[in-house]
Write a structure and sequence with these properties.
The chain is an alpha+beta fold. Helices cover about 65% and strands about 10% of the residues. The protein is elongated, with a radius of gyration of 28 Å.
């Protein structure tokens, strides 16, 4: 591979990494915004008299509403984090506020340590749902924690509770922090785990776990003020529940593999357009044969590459994953003649780029695409070409009148796409 090709690969990898970092950072926007708003309003939010009942019943509504939402959307990890927050709130209301001595100390220590520990654990686990056998096994963690505290209190063993209050480093906690040091350690662990898992998975729920751990730490640090604890505990539940809704919306409207909006998002966008627009249907050439030759893992890599290129198309276009190896680019309010040049630039950029295979792929059929001469001369199939290139065919159609249905524009773009393939592929054809 020549120096220019290597430089292009480095630039492309850096660009893709920048996009990935931007997407990961975007997952933290809503959780951090909710956390910040809660912090700002904590000392100023005053409910009118006719809403005073929300001070008592509001946390229960939010907690149980979040539990139901996570069950409906089958988000088991969020369900158990919310259940942990619910148990902590019950412990605060029925034990910390109403009891004293060992019971109150045990309830407070359990809240400070077990809730962030559970958040860290469920951030690390993969999604398996809640109302099933794996969910029941995960529920046992919470039951063990509750049982341990009940056993300690019932057996009158204050030395076990004292262990949770014993400082790890003497005189290390600031005067403004009332949490036991073990609670601080597990809170930091939960925040770091949530952040790392969110970045690695691109998950808004893991980002919400990190923000919820920080909010719950503020709740525990605010004691003995009951209003502040209820406020921050409720905000922690709101952050997780909102993330469940946000994640479910993303799955419904966005393609998980490429990160592009999906067909449902495209259909809704088309219904909202009142004027003219141009559609471009993009199809990866010989993609089925490509998958047969290199395997589905490399095929997924190709789909992500094409999607990343489509996201940077000029002319104000928005890319969508239509299905399989097909994509659609929508140019709202643009004439077909004004976007063809941008589409041809896109086509050439995909054709010129060399895809570096991330592993030594074994070819099962003839290689699709082009490889370097040195790679072709290698006798061992296990170490054959580590780079390939692909092409796309593009069909373009324009909606010229408001009376034209979007489906008619789709058909015209599809016919133009078939013409592009019939004429030799790797080209842009207008209807």
């Amino acid at each position: 591979m020549d120096l220019v090709s290597r430089y292009e690969i480095v630039v492309e990898d850096f660009s893709n990494a920048s996009i990935a970092i931007g997407k990961a950072a975007n997952n933290f926007v809503v959780p951090l915004a909710l956390w910040g708003i809660a912090l700002l309003l904590a000392g100023y939010a005053v409910l009118p008299s006719y809403l005073s009942g929300l001070k008592v019943h509001g946390p229960y509504l939010v907690l149980f509403g979040g539990l139901m939402l996570s069950l409906v959307f089958r988000r088991g990890r969020a369900f158990f984090v919310l259940l942990s927050l619910t148990l902590a709130y019950f412990a605060f209301v029925f034990f910390f506020q109403r009891e004293s001595g060992l019971v109150a100390r045990a309830a407070y220590a359990a809240m400070c340590v077990f809730v962030p520990m559970n958040i860290a654990v469920f951030a690390l686990l993969r999604e398996r749902g809640a109302l099933n056998a794996p969910g029941m096994r995960r529920l046992s963690l919470l039951l063990i924690e509750v049982g341990a505290i009940v056993a300690i209190v019932a057996s009158d063993l204050p030395e076990f509770v004292d262990m949770l209050y014993r400082p790890i480093v003497a005189h290390a906690s600031p005067a403004s922090v009332s949490l036991p040091q073990w609670g601080i350690v597990f809170t930091c662990l939960a925040i770091v785990t949530g952040v790392v898992c969110s970045v690695l998975r691109g998950s808004v729920i893991d980002a919400a776990f990190a923000a919820a751990a920080a909010a719950f730490a503020l709740a525990c640090n605010s004691l003995p003020s009951p209003g502040a604890f209820a406020w921050f505990c409720t905000i922690a539940a709101v952050i997780v529940a909102f993330a469940v809704a946000q994640d479910s919306h993303r799955l419904a409207f966005y393609d998980e593999l490429t990160g592009l909006p999906g067909r449902r998002a495209l259909n809704e966008r088309l219904q909202s357009l009142d004027g003219g627009f141009t559609l471009a249907m993009v199809d990866i050439d010989h993609f089925k044969a490509f998958n047969d030759a290199w395997g589905h893992d490399v095929g997924d890599q190709v789909l992500r590459l094409v999607a990343a290129r489509l996201q940077r198309v000029g002319g104000g276009g928005t890319a969508y994953r239509y299905g399989g190896e097909e994509f659609v680019i929508l140019f709202a309010g643009r004439r077909g003649s004004s976007v063809v040049a941008h589409l041809d630039t896109l086509r050439r950029s995909i054709d010129d780029y060399k895809i570096t295979l991330r592993h030594a792929a074994r070819r099962r059929n003839s290689m699709i695409g082009r490889s370097s001469a040195a790679a072709r001369n290698r006798p061992n199939a296990e170490t054959e070409a580590k780079w390939i290139s692909i092409t796309v065919s593009i069909g373009v159609a324009e909606r010229e009148s408001r009376a034209d249905a979007p489906s008619a524009v789709f058909q015209a773009a599809d016919k133009a796409l078939y013409r592009a393939k019939a004429e030799g592929r790797n080209r842009v054809v207008s209807s």
